[in-house]
Amino acid sequence: MIATDVGRLLISCPDRPGVVATVSHFLFDHGANIIHADQHSTERGHGTFLTRIEFQLPNLEAQLPDLEQTFKQIAGRFGMEWRLASAAHKKRLAIFVSRQEHALLELLWQHRAGDLKADLALVISNHPTHKALVERQGIAYVHIPVTSGTKAQAEQEQLRLLDEYRVDAVVLARYMQVLSPRFLQHYPARIINIHHSFLPAFVGANPYQAAYDRGVKLIGATAHYVTEELDAGPIIEQDVRRIDHRHDPDDLRRLGRYIERVVLARAVGWHCEDRVLLHGNKTIVFN
Amino acid sequence: MIATDVGRLLISCPDRPGVVATVSHFLFDHGANIIHADQHSTERGHGTFLTRIEFQLPNLEAQLPDLEQTFKQIAGRFGMEWRLASAAHKKRLAIFVSRQEHALLELLWQHRAGDLKADLALVISNHPTHKALVERQGIAYVHIPVTSGTKAQAEQEQLRLLDEYRVDAVVLARYMQVLSPRFLQHYPARIINIHHSFLPAFVGANPYQAAYDRGVKLIGATAHYVTEELDAGPIIEQDVRRIDHRHDPDDLRRLGRYIERVVLARAVGWHCEDRVLLHGNKTIVFN
Amino acid sequence: MIATDVGRLLISCPDRPGVVATVSHFLFDHGANIIHADQHSTERGHGTFLTRIEFQLPNLEAQLPDLEQTFKQIAGRFGMEWRLASAAHKKRLAIFVSRQEHALLELLWQHRAGDLKADLALVISNHPTHKALVERQGIAYVHIPVTSGTKAQAEQEQLRLLDEYRVDAVVLARYMQVLSPRFLQHYPARIINIHHSFLPAFVGANPYQAAYDRGVKLIGATAHYVTEELDAGPIIEQDVRRIDHRHDPDDLRRLGRYIERVVLARAVGWHCEDRVLLHGNKTIVFN
Amino acid sequence: MIATDVGRLLISCPDRPGVVATVSHFLFDHGANIIHADQHSTERGHGTFLTRIEFQLPNLEAQLPDLEQTFKQIAGRFGMEWRLASAAHKKRLAIFVSRQEHALLELLWQHRAGDLKADLALVISNHPTHKALVERQGIAYVHIPVTSGTKAQAEQEQLRLLDEYRVDAVVLARYMQVLSPRFLQHYPARIINIHHSFLPAFVGANPYQAAYDRGVKLIGATAHYVTEELDAGPIIEQDVRRIDHRHDPDDLRRLGRYIERVVLARAVGWHCEDRVLLHGNKTIVFN
């Protein structure tokens, strides 16, 4: 259950004495009760201060504009990047998928179980494969074929749909097309990809074959925000599992699917609960 | 490096609005800069509030008495259990050990490497086995034999030594004697034991044989504060490792040693860095 | 892909010199090529010898009766318990489920992905909840309500269905009814249950609440063969995950579901691939 | 305890029917009882066959020359690479170390505990740092300074010592010098290095800083046989641990030490128990 009176305040600013005192007073003055808070200071208090505060405030949604107005002044004073959000206001996701279904299925499942706190707005695919499956759950499925000749046009249609469906974030659930820089600019730090290796090892195509050829003893998966440089965006989550000589490349692909799905679902869940803060090309996850 | 101007404030109190604001103001007013803070509220803000704050304050040691005096009033107002400590003031440990050396060795090693932030005041054993090893590191080793007839007397001698060496906490590093309730009362929540099973499975003697007989697929170890009821005190840390049919009870004992040593060392380290707070018969570890 | 010419030979017998030589000669003489073999000797060669051999033999299905006939003599000589199976002959499973769907969904999914090498013959539930979901995958769903008064009758109907559908093994995928000893006798070492704790800790009902109350730092799940004594049958697989003070009992239930589903699926998969051998109240898993 | 009558037979050869039957008959005919056997066939029986057989044979050492003589013919027939070894004949190790002690300490400890089945013949270091520590355990310590000008000469002295001490394998326990191709040729697949990253990520110097800069969520260590190409030899073992935003590069170095030491010790232990077979640039570990 997401209570309707729970809010989240996220802040990133140059560290200096008084930040915590000021922010906690602001919340106290407005009748908000802090129920959880995480904070981190880089360079032992001499770099950037980052925090995520979960608070309870009766009638939050109605008070939000007011709160934001007042906080703007504090934020200005301390040079803060910040956002205030109601936990009841779920993020709207679009899932991009190609032929492989495992990452999509996990998200559908976690959504259905109530574990993924998000609205699944629509699924976009360059294949018609999963249409019935997705629509059965009451989610729109749009098939947009992509060829080298039609890619620009396809992206335009995708962007139009994201707009139409008021999408907050895009999840690439094993979507096998590279998105253009132009596309990426529309959703900075809001496009999450799952790469099927423990990055930065095995960047690029066919990482399981590469892992097999190198003879590693663990395979992994990495969820990251997509940036222009391939597989080089800020890492949100990674995990691995042990393999051995009995596993051929097909086994790695099969076993890897089960890491990919959980790593992606964790990253998406954290993003939707406002647990991921950017700091340069890295993430700070308050989970 | 432990900076001499880093302090820690630990608080546990009934939750209510204004606690964070008050505490952070107190620190700000005294010129302290928060460099890390963890907090937890049980029952979503309607139970107990617990926090651990690490702050930087020039000339801390000199100011500590003053800080404590002022904070006493805040603490009284909110019904707080609390303590203020300088990170530079290391806890003094006594290690109790019997014949097995692995847990002792790990603590000596981590101490030597500077990873265990504590003073090893002395080692007490019911065997003379490790005398040379311990003394070589410049640590006192006292051999106090224990038989059923001499146990009370032995404990009296142990308590006298703990007093003489101004010991803050006792680590039972595979010490094979049960301590009396009378002994325990002198060090409430300050005696840490390593039990060689994943508690509450396999309470009591010979847990590896019991694990073998039951055919479990993972074995574990548990570090906990010692209370009167055997193996039932607040758990600080646990870990496990996979085993299979090729492992006989001796293998489990051998493999288990490597879990025991890291689980105990982690728990002791956290205790010494004031990261463990008690909440009923459970611990909250801010690590 | 399961090749149609792959067979499996499983043997358990008193250990003595010559077993391996005899068995490997038998296979060689019949033109079978060993592609994988696992073996284990308890008590360092003086107890029980257990092996699982995967071999390739063209036209296997046709030759199977002949092979079995010949092997019977070897088996008699060495006092072997054994079975010969074609990998192409998939086991037929019945899944028993109550209201919670996660364990069922995982099995459906792994089956659909081709990762669970079995035929899902039917699903039996004491609730109508998952009827549409299951039937959509082309699997029969039978709703058999169970009350204390109708339990014996319900079990009779269940047994009739298992017979009708020629079921080889039963999977209790969070089925919340205790099966009678009479029922169990029909499927010795062929009923797999998932228990939502790291057994033998937290036997019985509501293990997540019990885990929360005890303050453990890891929660787990256990897949085991069902025997008359509750939660005491041979363990096939176990796994755990880390939790901390921020997780309340509902969180444990939620997080635990993701361990339960993978632990059960692994155990069922191994059973279906003839990788699990019984040895007293324990299992030997050649995986 | 290593029984004096336990032998190990390791084989690698082109796969073909009859290999297992022939080898098991050979052992049976000589009165050997197989107590454990692992085998692996690449390409599902159409590539290379690899096996490790542990057997019991009274009076093994005396019979070994005879066994080898007879087996030579079988080996010739099947084109086998093979070796026969008595488990009682421990491998003699040289440990190379620089200033950091953790990997060395773990090996000394495991040796002392009887868990590392090897003879520690000598320790060679480019620093005098650990002389007292090593000699106290009754192990020779030779300080051979290495500068760019004296490297060739230093290696000559090292090789002479390895010869003098009849060393079977060399362990680079955080030895910060690159060995020349000429040196490596003397110990093919018998020099084990620990690299402080999850290879192939972060090849080269300062991997913890690189891991920090990239923002990975897990750090790792890799034990591998040393070949001419830096950090590219056959991987024997790898492991990882989770880190988060609170860990700076120094924390990674500190935490990483505890992965390095166990990964190296596992790899060395497996090598000494003849559990590691080479297959191209990969290893097959029968553990």
Q: What is the rounded Rg of chain A?
A: 21 Å
Structural class of chain A: alpha/beta
The number of distinct β-strands of chain A equals: 13
Binned strand content of chain A: 25-35%
CATH topology of the largest domain in chain A: Rossmann fold
Mean pLDDT of chain A: 95
Spans of chain A with pLDDT under 50 lasting ≥5 residues? none
**How many separate helices of chain A?**
8
| Assembly type | homotetramer
Quick one: CATH class of the largest domain in chain A? Alpha Beta
Please give the largest β-sheet of chain A: 7 strands, mixed
Tell me the helix content of chain A: 25-40%
Molecular shape of chain A: globular
First-to-last CA distance of chain A: 18 Å
CATH architecture of the largest domain in chain A: 3-Layer(aba) Sandwich
| H/E topology pattern of chain A | EHEEHEEHEHEHEHEHEEHEE
User: Biggest protein-protein interface?
Assistant: A-D, 27 and 27 residues
CATH H-level superfamily of the largest domain in chain A: Formyl transferase, N-terminal domain
Number of domains of chain A: 2
Spatial order of strands in the largest sheet of chain A = 7-6-5-8-9-10-11
Describe the structure.
- Four copies of one chain form a homotetramer.
- The first copy, chain A, is α/β, with parallel strands linked by helices and 287 residues long.
- Chain A folds into two domains: 3-86, Alpha-Beta Plaits, CATH 3.30.70; 91-285, Formyl transferase, N-terminal domain (Rossmann fold, 3-Layer(aba) Sandwich), CATH 3.40.50.170.
- Helices cover 34% and strands 30% of the residues of chain A.
- Chain A contains eight helices and 13 strands.
- Chain A has helices spanning 19-29, 60-78, 102-112, 131-136, 151-164, 181-186, 207-214, 249-272, and strands at 6-14, 33-41, 48-56, 81-86, 91-97, 118-125, 140-143, 169-172, 191-195, 218-225, 235-242, 276-279, 282-285.
- In chain A, the strands form three sheets. In chain A, strands 7-6-5-8-9-10-11 form a seven-stranded mixed β-sheet. The first copy, chain A, has a four-stranded antiparallel β-sheet with strand order 2-3-1-4, with helices on one face. Chain A has a two-stranded antiparallel ribbon with strand order 12-13.
- The model of chain A has no long low-confidence stretch (mean pLDDT 95).
